[in-house]
Amino acid sequence: MVLEAINLGLITNLSLEYALVALISGLCAAYLVSHLIERSELLSAGAIASGFCLVAVFAAEMLREAPVLEALEFTLWGAGAGFLGLILSVALLEVFEVIFNLTTPLRLLELGNPAQPLLRRLMQEAPGTYNHSIMVGNLAEAAAEAVGADSLLARVGAYYHDVGKINRPEYFVENQLHMHNPHDRLNPNLSKLAIMAHVGDGVELAQRYGLPRPVVDIIKQHHGTSVLSYFYYKAKHNSVGDVNEETYRYEEDKPTSREAAIIMLADSVEAAVKAMQHPTMKKIQMLIRDIIRQKMEDGQLDRSQLTFGDLGKVADAFLVALRGVVGHRIEYPVEGKVMA
To answer: Which of 290, 261, 259, 260 is nearest to 273 (CA)?
Structure first.
């Protein structure tokens, strides 16, 4: 931006006023767009920036003692340039996002809207998974902020990490409300195939709905090469011979970003805490650190760029975010009963 202003000054034979106009307008526009949370706000930011540009041009013309009519003429040209820049910015941003599959903050914010078609499908077809994903998103966002990672990408990636469960929601315990568990009728090997398929299904759905590459990578990597321990131990219990642990591992990539690794940890922590009997803060703290230790020892975090210090911050952020789990409510009185 500063270089652009200097370049403009050089082009106009070292005219300081033009360089100042470019610098002031550019700084104003940069500040306004840095606080956007919706794409529609880009129009408002552009209009305000154009207004600043208009005032700056008029002031510059007055500084060089130009006639008022000439100053107004240049001001109108400046306003026209600002309006044209606004139109081009809005149009080109959407075009570049689609053509180059860019992951801009505005696009991530839009993807986090529950009205998005794929999120709506998840909510309607696998409501238990949707609620789980929202909780994982809260944990991942808090942890990403603690270590300086992209908290918006972590939250949105968590929302979509289990979208593959849409294809067979009844095979996942969070969706088995008032229904029999189909795994009771399957051998562990078939159960393993049904569970592991949700990763590939999720990648396929994400690509079909045009999700950006970082979100697709999170879907692909959120289990890494972890062991599907429940069905592995079930197979060992049911088998008379040895069961190879490697056959019960996910066959995907390990997390290659801090955001993907954080979502892997948040996914495991949320599920484990939800299964706890009589959770306390101490129990949750021990559980979080045990899960992180297991993932480290299994090599799942080797490519994640998370340091030991980061993992400590992640554990602390999870613990703070899970404080509501140990809360309790008073029991409301029922007619015919007296509260103790």
So the answer is: 290
